[in-house]
Every structure is written in structure tokens, then in C-alpha cells.
Amino acid sequence: MKSDTSMLPVAEPVRWSTWALLACLLLLVIASFATLPLKWGEFFSADAVHTSADFLHGFAPPELAPNFLMKVGVATFETLAMSAIGTVIAAVLGALLALPASGRFGNVARNATRGVLNVLRSIPELVWASILLIAAGLGPFAGTLALALHTVGVLGRLFADAFENCPPLPAATLRINGARPAVAFLYATLPQCSPQMMSYTLYRWENNIRAAAILGVVGAGGLGQMLKYHLSLFQMPSAATVIVAMLLMVAAVDGLSYLLRRAMTR
């Protein structure tokens, strides 16, 4: 039996502005390849391959001394704590800033709050850490604050968009029946958005795990600081153990986050 396609809606023609945007993006990609001095021949040369193989051979076998593994375990816990605390602080502050950013207190508060969130998330974690290390000193405190500040900008924008895109009918029904705006938000809007907000938070926690490991390179503690120390002394077996710990930690957190998101979205 042939399907009747005559009842299907006619596809809208693509606007010229869309084609112009695609053409500009294509020209940008071509210009990027044309202007950058990409030396692919030298990268895949026999000398480069031999040098890379010798460098990687220095990482084997990893350092497995009990005392060193204990230090790696402490640094791993420190990295996890930095990412977890930074994400929790960011989730709380992001939810608070998302209320005015979603337009619930007028357009002036919306535009001002979104401007603050744009500034926070446009500055990378490494830049925040470099600034905060001057004020807070070396250690995980500055790294935690750096993660929190950047993540506030990201989660605040995502939470605000979730509030704006939430179906308004349940909250409107409560308002018609005499409920106050705060009550309608807590009992109608927030329960609808909370699974999506939690999913965003867990995803950002995954990203912060990787960022926390990198922030240690600038002196923010954790596995990154250990990796920088051993690489600077050319202690490749010790650096290999730290890298393996990073990979295992990221894989474990990714799996846990996936299971939690799956459980909440069923």
C-alpha cells in the first residue's frame, strides 16, 4: 500500500539569510586553514614519529609505590572535592540568578542579570584561577572559586532558559485559583524544570572534573598540580600514574552521572 504524501505540509523555502550565514561559515573555515601555518608533513614525518615514540616509552611502567599511590589518592579526592563544591555553589547561585534572568522581575533585571552571567561564563576557568590565586593564594580554594564563578554563568543561563521555556499552564492555573506567584513557582514551575536543571548540573559536574584536573597546573592543587610537578622534573613513570588516575576518575564520574541522569529522566 503506497503512502499518501499529498497530505504532508509543504516544506518552507530556505531563506537567503540562512544561505548567507552558511556561506560565511564556510569562508571562515577556508580562511582559517589558509592562514594558519599547519605543518602536517613535519607532524607525520619519520623523525616526529620516532621522537613521540621515545617520549611515550618513558611513561612505562607507571609508578606503583604504595606511598606514591597514597599521595595520588589524596590528590584525586582533592580534585573531586574541588569539582563537587564548585558545582554545588554554582548550582545554588545559578538558580538564584536565573529568576531575574528569566524575566520574572522585569526586563531591566533580566538584561542586567544576563549581562552578569555572560561575563562570568565568558572568562575561562584558567583565567579565573590565575586571578584568584593572587587573592586567595595557592591551593584548592582558588580552584574551587574559579570553577564556581565560571559555572555560575553557564548554569544561570541554562536555568533561566529552562524557566522561560517551561509550560505556563500549571502555574497559571494556580494563580487563577488564588495562589501567590512564589507559591505557583515552587509548586508548578520548579517541579517541571527540576529534572532538566539536575541534568544540566550533573553535566557541568562532569566538565568541572576535567577542569579541576587542569586548574592544578596553575597551582590550584589536586592531580593537575602533581602532574605539572612530575612532568617538570621529567619523572615520567610518576606522571603516568597521575594521568591514569585522571582517566579513571573521569570515567567513573561520567558513568555515575549518566546513571543518575537516566534515573531522573525515566
Provide structural commentary:
Residues 76-257 form the ABC transmembrane type-1 domain. Belongs to the binding-protein-dependent transport system permease family. InterPro entries: MetI-like, MetI-like_sf, PhnE/PtxC. It is found in: Cell membrane. This protein has 266 residues and is an all-alpha fold. It has a domain at 79-222: MetI-like (MetI-like fold, Orthogonal Bundle). It has 11 helices and no strands. The protein has helices spanning 16-35, 40-43, 46-57, 66-101, 107-122, 125-136, 140-165, 169-176, 181-215, 222-232, 236-264. α10 (222-232) packs antiparallel against α11 (236-264). It is globular and about 70 Å long.
Descriptive key words:
266 residues; MetI-like fold; mainly alpha; 11 helices
Total number of β-strand segments? 0
Quaternary structure type:
single chain
Could you give a short account of the major beta sheet?
none
CATH H-level superfamily title of the domain at 79-222: MetI-like
The total count of helices amounts to 11
Q: In CATH, what is the class of the domain at 79-222?
A: Mainly Alpha
CATH architecture verdict of the domain at 79-222: Orthogonal Bundle
Task: Identify the overall geometry.
Answer: globular
Annotated CATH topology of the domain at 79-222: MetI-like fold
Calculate Rg over CA atoms. 25 Å
Order of helix and strand elements from N to C terminus: HHHHHHHHHHH
Helix content: over 70%
Tell me the strand percentage band.
Answer: under 5%
By secondary-structure content and strand pairing, the structural class works out as mainly alpha
Main location: membrane
Transmembrane segments: 16-36, 80-101, 126-149, 239-260
Organism: Janthinobacterium violaceinigrum
Protein name: Phosphonate ABC transporter, permease protein PhnE
